[in-house]
């Protein structure tokens, strides 16, 4: 079986170049649009610019380290993420500490990324003992999530681990990545349905109780600001000034605790489209990746879980999380200098993109 994914190595490099150029354009557009909206609304774009820089830097580091040491790089990332989550379990200063996504939002995100990185490292090694040890490390992140008392983190980490194990049987990576995109869209749609009051009363009450009334009120403030300023938004970093709920809360962090709603309120509908474009670009580069299908789908599952956490919380407000997301994506899309694992080990075609095994 050929170790390349296309008709020629040159064609494969061209595809990677197209994906990289698309990433530069999308991330650059995010930075430029934040500056435009900040200038028009007297906002503060530093947070968005820092997030864009963190994603780009993490992605580049992941591509380089993933090419040089395809197994050691994600293993080190997993240990670092787990260490950060355990060392600072209360890294999120949030007023709604009783919420499952309040104080533990960033911790849950770090544990999810650590789980994905450990599983990627497991699929990158040829040695069975090392693979078992790395999957046990991934299982250890679930235990750490349970110790942190976060049901959401336990659920997300377990989901990533199970998706990684199931990816060995996936023949078409495109189908799996499309499913991840659909899950993210459904979570976002569920939030909007909750705010619009179109959910059944029982489900509405259950979700509001789990998310806390305070968070739902913040979301409604963000939705009202979006409806009043759909074009440019109210300006980056200005949600806390204009939200009645945030203004009445002690120790408020000035965020609506939802990345799409924050982008919509502060940067208008174009900001939401750019945020969605970044996620779609990550799925696209994973689809074009030269890595094995289990590595690709594992990274996709972890990034999807992170997207869900960011939709329901403020995980993307932390540089360690955004840099970690970029690092995981970079490792999963790197071109290792050595040969990738054969199909007999991963039990799935290495380059099954369009239903074709290479």
Poorly predicted runs:
1-8, 91-103, 342-358
Gyration radius (Cα, Å) is 20 Å
Assembly state here? single chain
The count of DSSP E runs of length 2 or more, i.e. the number of strands, is 0
Major sheet: size, sense and barrel closure?
none
By DSSP (H or I, 4+ residues per run), the number of helices equals 15
Q: Would you tell me the structural class of the helices and strands?
A: mainly alpha
Average of pLDDT: 86
Question: How is this fold's topology laid out?
Answer:
Layout: H1 9-41, H2 46-68, H3 72-87, H4 105-124, H5 128-147, H6 151-167, H7 173-196, H8 201-211, H9 213-228, H10 239-242, H11 244-247, H12 259-287, H13 293-312, H14 319-333, H15 343-346
Descriptive labels:
disordered N terminus, disordered C terminus, 72% helix, mainly alpha, 358 residues
Can you walk through the features of this model?
- This protein has 358 residues and is mostly helical.
- It has helices at 9-41, 46-68, 72-87, 105-124, 128-147, 151-167, 173-196, 201-211, 213-228, 239-242, 244-247, 259-287, 293-312, 319-333, 343-346.
- Helix 4 (105-124) packs parallel to helix 14 (319-333).
- The chain is globular and about 55 Å long.
- Residues 1-8, 91-103 and 342-358 have low confidence and may be disordered.
Question: What is shown here, in short?
Answer:
This protein is 72% helix and 0% strand. The chain is an all-alpha fold. Helix 1 (9-41) runs antiparallel to helix 12 (259-287) and helix 6 packs antiparallel against helix 13 (293-312).
